[in-house]
Structure formats: structure tokens, C-alpha cells
Specification:
This protein is mostly helical and 167 residues long. 53% of the residues lie in helices and 10% in strands.
Length: 167
């Protein structure tokens, strides 16, 4: 079985669950933060919606510099509503899924590097980047969003089984 064939069912499952969380975003709480050091609900939601799209440069490029010398630094995507966030998420899922589906095992095993200001932060096989920086990272921030929803009295969707709000 090819790596992309093993990865796509998990990708589809996790993205479907994340979409349920994003679909609960309260438009009137995008500026809300649980703590002064925390991202706002809107920043967290946009980050979660943006993340699947990272599969494209991971698979199609050898590296990504978040602050390239002489170039503009990476700027997080901003959204201002649930609808805008869901549109971004859906667009990124589609492009990510296509990139994953078209990648060969050889491409997945090629090294990929994340850089900051020309300095390598890490290098690992592309399959590891997709698993850790996209899938696992998505699950991490989805759980964080679940806490944000709970603290705002928004019913938390079921994830791998029922939630306290859905039985």
C-alpha cells in the first residue's frame, strides 16, 4: 500500500472532525481570549483552518522559510467569521488532499526543512512533516478550540466518541 493511501483516510477523518468544531464558531466571540497570552478565538480558528494548506508547500517544495532574508515574513491568515473560516478550511482541505493523493512514496521520503531567517529549524522526511505539523498539530489546536468553545458555553462536538454535549 502506498503512503498516500494510508494517510488519506486519517486525513479525511481528522479534517471532518475539525470542521465540526469550526462549524460551532460563535461569530460574536472572535476577539475572545481565555488568557492574555492566548490566541483569540478567531486567531485560533484561522490557524486551524489554514493548517491543512501547509501540505502543498510541504510536498511541492524542499523547504519553507517563515522569515526569508530580504523577503516578507510569514503572516498568519486572518478570518472574521465562521463562514469565512469554513471557506478557508474547505479550500485548504481540497488542495491538501490533492497534494497528498498525488505524492509518491519517493516524494514523501524526501527531506523537507523549516527555516526561520535562513536558519534551519528542523529537517525531516515530508511524510513526518505531514503527520506532525499538519495532522497532529491540527488535533492539538482542535482540542484547544474545544476548550474555548466550552468556556463560551458553546456545545462541544463529538470527536472520537460522544462529548458531554452530544450523547
Amino acid at each position: 500500500m502506498r503512503m498516500n493511501e494510508m494517510l488519506l483516510p486519517e486525513f479525511d477523518q481528522e479534517m471532518a472532525i475539525s470542521r465540526k468544531f469550526l462549524d460551532r464558531l460563535p461569530d460574536d466571540k472572535f476577539a475572545w481570549k481565555p488568557h492574555e497570552k492566548s490566541m483569540s478565538l478567531g486567531q485560533l480558528a484561522a490557524h486551524l483552518a489554514d493548517m491543512p494548506g501547509w501540505a502543498v508547500p510541504t510536498i511541492q517544495q524542499d523547504s519553507l522559510d517563515l522569515a526569508p532574508p530580504g523577503g516578507p515574513a510569514f503572516q498568519p491568515t486572518k478570518t472574521s467569521s465562521r463562514g469565512e473560516t469554513l471557506n478557508l478550511f474547505d479550500k485548504n482541505i481540497a488542495t491538501a488532499r490533492n497534494a497528498i493523493a498525488s505524492a509518491t512514496d519517493e516524494e514523501f521520503m524526501k527531506p523537507w526543512s523549516l527555516l526561520m531567517g535562513g536558519q534551519v529549524i528542523f529537517t525531516m522526511p515530508r511524510i513526518g512533516v505531514v503527520r506532525s505539523m499538519i495532522l497532529n498539530h491540527n488535533v492539538h489546536h482542535r482540542a484547544q478550540l474545544g476548550v474555548y468553545l466550552r468556556l463560551n458555553n458553546v456545545p462541544v462536538p463529538a470527536t472520537y466518541g460522544p462529548s458531554a454535549d452530544e450523547s
